[in-house]
Design goal:
Shape: globular
Number of helices: 2
Distance between the termini: 23 Å
Radius of gyration: 18 Å
Order of helices and strands: EHEEEEEEEEEHEEE
Length: 203
Amino acid sequence: MPRRHNKTLSSYARIFLWIATAAVSAWAQNPTAKQAPDPLAADPRHTHLELENQWVRVFQEHLEPHETMPMHQHPAPGAVIVFLTDRNNHLVYFDGTTKDFHNQAGDVIWAAPTTHKSENSTGARFAALQIEPKPVANPKPFPKESTDALIVDPTRYQVLAENEWIRAIRVTVGPHEKLKMHKHPATGAVVIYLSDQDMRQYH
């Protein structure tokens, strides 16, 4: 799904993220005359749509050294951000307040909806994926599975972020290792590969 990146995030042979979206309740934003545009509309040069369906929207945000993005709005309920490079960004919010953020390649966070403009404050390229869950009319919790991957194989599956909208887990598999038989919830998921994958799957 996302483009491949040359920077190595781990010495393990296989590492990827499984981001499942829960069925979330509907939400609405009250637009105002001062409402900032969507990131893809505000700055198509620095944003690229990777995937969109009725459940989720995934786009990449990237900035070359010291480049900026104009004021834009990240909608509710928020987004999972997966950093493909280190981040050293300076954000200016709609009310004029500012904040600097620092993250490492491979970090995963949940970000609340905000309106801001941003600057890459270093001499290195910045890139990240944003995964935005979409609302549905009839919310349902994540189904509970006795064979959930986190239950049957906790040494290789790690929860990075979880709330009423998403669950993001990191899966790490060493060379020639095997994952135990498991089942993922029937909610669908966005899978982001942080290394090459060459695996055989059994059902």
